[in-house]
């Protein structure tokens, strides 16, 4: 049985999944068909942003795909079910009370000290090899093609003998260039 999660004062329990603030007396909220609750202002902002993104992506498509594309359908930010809502009326709703009364963020001395400590920790972890740089990792097994102007393989040194997986680790070489990836098998 589906129950609406409203408190005694007819306010939803929990938080708005868009702004992450709770619901207070005086907040305007909307219940979707899937029984999720959002501040009306937040749901309007979410749907407007999603529609804008949809239109921008649609413009990138060739005309024939634009013509056959489905019309924009708003979806629930929580469960991704299609929802029906009047964005224009939701846009007239005031922002949540907690958003209006929130204090302005300011960097404190305590926060600056924490940033300094985290920076030192990052450097220490980096020195010990604890930070993985995806870009550096991506170039470890790079074989450049003649198109790149260099025909040399850059491979890390590996211990002699069979690899732990039971096959020769150098049997496959992946060639990566800026535009393509090719796998070569050596026998």
Automatic annotation (TrEMBL):
Residues annotated as signal peptide: none
GO terms, molecular function: ubiquitin protein ligase activity; zinc ion binding
Stored PROSITE patterns: ZF_RING_2 (PS50089)
Keyword terms: Metal-binding, Zinc, Zinc-finger
UniProt keyword annotation of Zinc-finger present: yes
RING-type domain span: 16-80
Gene3D superfamilies from the UniProt entry: Zinc/RING finger domain, C3HC4 (zinc finger)
InterPro entries: RNF25, Znf_RING, Znf_RING/FYVE/PHD
Record-level GO cellular component terms: nucleus
BP terms from Gene Ontology: protein ubiquitination
PANTHER family for this protein: E3 UBIQUITIN-PROTEIN LIGASE RNF25, RING FINGER PROTEIN 25
Name of the protein: RING-type domain-containing protein
């Amino acid at each position: 049985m589906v129950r609406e999660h409203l408190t005694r004062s007819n306010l939803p329990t929990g938080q708005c999944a868009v702004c992450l603030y709770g619901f207070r007396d005086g907040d305007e909220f909307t219940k979707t068909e899937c029984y999720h609750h959002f501040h009306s202002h937040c749901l309007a902002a979410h749907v407007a942003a999603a529609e804008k993104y949809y239109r921008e992506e649609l413009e990138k498509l060739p005309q024939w795909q634009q013509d056959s594309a489905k019309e924009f359908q708003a979806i629930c930010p929580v469960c991704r079910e299609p929802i029906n809502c009047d964005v224009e009326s939701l846009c007239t709703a005031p922002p949540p009370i907690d958003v209006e009364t929130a204090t302005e963020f300011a960097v404190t001395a305590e926060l600056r000290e924490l940033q300094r400590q985290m920076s030192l920790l990052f450097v220490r972890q980096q020195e010990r090899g604890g930070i993985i740089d995806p870009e550096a990792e991506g170039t470890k097994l790079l074989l450049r093609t003649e198109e790149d102007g260099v025909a040399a393989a850059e491979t890390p040194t590996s211990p002699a003998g069979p690899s732990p997986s039971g096959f020769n680790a150098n049997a496959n070489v992946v060639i990566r260039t800026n535009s393509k990836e090719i796998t070569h098998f050596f026998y």
